[in-house]
Amino acid sequence: MNRKIKILMHTHWDREWYFTKDETKVLLRNHMQEVLEYLEEHPDCIYILDGQSVMIDDYLEMDKGAEARLRKFVKNGQLRVGPFYTQTDLLLVHGESVFRNLYYGIKRAREFGDPMLIGYAPDTFGHASQMPQIYKAFSIGSTFFWRGFSELKAQHSDFFWEGTDGTKILGVNLAAGYQGAKYLEEEEEALKKRMGKIMKVLDTYSSGSGRLVMNGHDQMPIQKNIEDILETLRKLYPEDELEIGDFESYLDTLPLENLETVKGELTHSKHARIHRTIGSTRMDIKLLNTEIEHKLFHQLEPLAVIGVEAGIEYPHGVIEEILKILFGVHAHDSIGGCNSDAVNRDIYHRLLNAKEMVDTQLELHLRLLSLARPENNTIVLVNPLPEERKEEMVELVTLTRQKNFTILDEHHKEIPFSLLSQEEEDAGLTDRQVAARLMDIKVYRSKLLLRVDKMAGLSVKYLQLQEELSSVAPLMKAEETLIIENVWGVLKVEGNQISYEDKITGINHQNVFYLENSGDAGDSYDYSPPVKDLLVRSADLAEITGKRRSGMGFQELQLYIQFNVPESEESREREVLDKTVTFEAVFRLYEKDPKVYCELKHKNIVKDSRFRGVFSTGITVDEVQVDGYLSSQNKKVYLNEELAIWEKDQWVEKPVSIETMQSYAVLYDNRGSGYLYSEGLKEYEVLEDQIHFTLFRAFSHLGKRNLVNRPGRPSGIEIETPDNQLQGTEFHFRFAFSFHLKDVNPSKESKKYLTPIMGYHKKEFNRFNINRRNALIVPQKKLSLPLQEAAVSAVKRTEEGNEVFVRIFNPENRDITVEFPEGTFLANGMEEKLRPLEKAQLRPQEILQVILSSMEEI
């Protein structure tokens, strides 16, 4: 047999795991020095730098004089870098984060030479079905990966992978693992035995003559005796061709005309663990990450686009810094939370730094926009979507000297509003100059809710706050009746149950929402039910107390939901409910919105537990519609095929029917639909007519062996991680639900839900003083694009040219046509212009990227 055996030399470089990123930075310096020395001595050798360009930055940070030497080997092709900036997770982070990770990874690699345009994601815990199209946007036509493959997908490990929109790329599963040929033996008999096992696997799964032998492992140093090993291998396999190769040369061996086609997500756990429930590990980290992503992509970037029209420089450097902090957190172990306590603390602290940066830049931009108008007490409203908005509610905070004030629109007409809260405070707590001068100034911090009738896309509206002109709207009075309603439905509390009556259909949804507590005997990689579990539901035994209040355009219930649960694993085994837990809940209805808006606050005081929210839809179906990366797709409610064979075929992990969404899940049939919108809660399971979405888990170890759903060895290492019990952690969860008779576009609704109109009051007292710039002007340009059913993913400025860049996608199952203003160009993932574009027909789930020469409303 004439096989073409490619020995691929690499290292898999986890920046952090049960060791910190600072430890690996020091070790990377030593590693890279050895690699560069070896490449100098062996000019025919190729070395793969794990598909992540951050290793360039980490190395040069520790060895500042090595740039020219490093550049030499990237430029001549011996050292392969990119395309990712870091080895990101490909299910849990925002779709825009994946785009930006590839953008900055390729950009950094280009500064040294040609990037490796291979979608190399060796250890990622599953692969989203939209990745073929995302890869193609960067001229990447293939992916090499380890986790997620089974014979239910294809018989061979080489195939065409077809994405959600029909885009196809080459997919290669590393059947023997990315670490299969680590530390190859030099002694002939030992090498023969080792290679025999590897070649047996590769001969079984490879579709062509090529055999990809991965010589590397986690933080593995370069194997300096590889040339001697090659000589021994040539003796052992005299009929085969052997060489140190790369991914591209392996692709050349594939029989393209005979390859199978694989569709959908790559999340099977037959040969390698996928950790399907890692989506709820360390929810404090995941929720903070999602908050930053949403503020960055949904608010700051479009706000900064508007800011340019007002004379405010676009903050490219700030945004890049925030993104690169996020990229470091998005590595599969990092965002997975499957780390030591010390590493998770470091990750959380870095995210806090990123949050401070995005919050400060948001406030600075809003403040500068308010300064564009010379009047004091200006209120600025911003629509960060490039589409017109109608009849939406806006929350904002004011800081005034007087308790009483009115708000006037641009025509000096009084605008009604509701006063949600008002507190008196010392101005010196906000403004240091007040405290330094010993000035005793009392101010009122008020939280308002007002309605915006209409706003054009990417536009600004200015209002005026006037103090002492009339009485402020009084604070809402609390009422004992726990019932609220609008034209769509009635939400009420009766005993320990929350129900919703749909006025359109007349259906009464009993227990429309409740809380569920179960045991968790798992580890940081996987939820695992205890051998003896005890399920506790708030709908069965909770005490619900609270009040009702209403104001201009809204009604809400403020509730305390209390019930008893087991304090620990031991209590659960004894079936003792020995701890009272409390969830503070707010359910709000708006006059002109069918959604029920929900917020939960909770401080965890129990261990070894999982808490889930449960949304009862009244609809029982076999598929659920969810959003993935820039797409809408249907997923099976229950993995019948996989679960029927996993034990017989000895899968390494049970394929539990717990899945990942980005921001919504929908159950629908011919009677209606139940929609769940989520702000960071991404793990769900559909059981009968209910969507169970995980709020958080509390557990004891980084890794455990012999879990109920994961037999055998531990994942990671068996060390205690008491921080994972999340004792004392305060959570703030946000979600919404609704019912509809007719179809709505949940992708567009979700984008609106996650992208509220922003409001800001120009305050007299501020933490930092800034000067008003002479160049500031009131922005006049708007951008209301007729996107039809297309949903917006990003609105930003390009780094090259500083032009408006928009990324949209078609979430429908039919073609749609979108028109653009004159001067629009089709663009690629690197935000480079391809050709002029006036009109585009988008196939289902297609992503489109355009550059607009200017903001012109059409």
TrEMBL record:
InterPro entries membership: Gal_mutarotase_sf_dom, Glyco_hydro/deAcase_b/a-brl, Glyco_hydro_38_cen, Glyco_hydro_38_cen_sf, Glyco_hydro_38_N, Glyco_hydro_38_N_sf, Glyco_hydro_57/38_cen_sf
Pfam families tied to this protein: Alpha-mann_mid, Glyco_hydro_38N
Domain of life: Bacteria
Keywords carried by this UniProt record: Glycosidase, Hydrolase, Metal-binding
GO molecular function, one term: alpha-mannosidase activity
Any Gene Ontology biological process: mannose metabolic process
Domain Glycoside hydrolase family 38 central: 273-351
SMART domains xref list: Alpha-mann_mid
Family: Belongs to the glycosyl hydrolase 38 family.
Annotated protein name in UniProt: Mannosylglycerate hydrolase
Species annotation: Proteiniclasticum ruminis
